[in-house]
Amino acid sequence: MDVMAGIYAFLMGNIVTFILVLSLLVFVHEMGHYLVGRWSGIRILAFSVGFGPELFGFTDRHGTRWKIAAIPLGGYVRFFGDEDASSKPDSDQIAAMSEEDRARSFAGAKLWKRAATVAAGPIANFLLAIAIFTVLFSVYGRTIADPVVAEVKPEGAAAAAGVLPGDLLVAIDGSKVETFDDVRRYVSIRPSQKIIVTVERAGQKLDLPMVPERVDQTDQFGNKIELGQIGIVTNQQAGNFRLQTYTPLQALREGVIQTRDIVTGTFKYIGNIFAGTMRADQLGGPIRVAQASGQMATLGIGAVLQLAAMLSVSIGLLNLMPVPVLDGGHLMFYAVEAVRGKPLGSAAQEIAFRIGLAMILTLMVFTTWNDIGSWIG
User: Fold this and answer.
1) Of the listed 30, 54, 151, 213, which one is catalytic?
2) Does 54 participate in catalysis according to the annotation?
3) pLDDT along the chain (377 residues), means of 10
4) pTM of the model
């Protein structure tokens, strides 16, 4: 009974927010494909949020079927001449088309139009993230603190390197830092990696080499997060905590920077996994995203929007992976086509799509396994 009660509480507390957030991100992603495809003169057969059986929908005057499907874990835009939702071309159908119909099919469009249509989905996700962060910075501002050390934890990397209370951190690996959060963000994704922290002390600048320690930290919801730490703390007196407000243009700039930092942080984390400096069990799938959605909902709309922006960047990056079936795989095919002067043969594309599908299914199984382990734990 306790297990069933836990499952019921999880579903009621997390699924609704998860579906709303994911549906928004999928809609924006597919709308990017749709708008550029329409602009390119490609006929669009269907626009679906979700997979599987249609729950409800309508057909517009252009012949496009707009629908909500039963499985809310993605979506697709199906173009004229596609064999299925993955935009794999239907060779037999295209061969039987008239010249006029072929010109309006996705496969018959010029290479740059196909590439632009495919790239528009991930780009739409990045633009959505920038827009959300811009709104959040405009409305809420941000609490910042000066990068001044109030306390150095004994036996930490900073203590071993010679950092002292009162030191002002001015740069890490030559990159300027302006807030204490800049330091935390840079260090957190570089556990077990040597860094050079530049501090200002009594008017002199000192370069102090150190190696952030890899630690497991627990957030306010009990989730364990692996990150790097050097063992320094600031406080109100040293850091001068304050609310930073932004004009719309300043908020836009911060939104771009925040989105860029998520992209670079994601690549750094993936690199750390392959380098063995971070574990892969933090890669999450639908269950963990649903759980995070419910947790953020308890903190208010601002927290939910922040999560949506981060997930939007993740969806954009995932779709740009050079894996057949994903947008990045299609762009890889188009790059090959540009070099060869003709597309890959249908047999080669079929094999590539099958390999890509196997890779995606493997990733889904792995992340779901991580989710279940994290949830049980």
Assistant:
1) 30
2) no
3) 49 71 93 95 92 92 93 88 66 72 83 94 96 96 93 93 95 93 92 93 94 81 78 92 94 95 86 74 65 71 89 91 87 90 78 78 72 61
4) 0.85
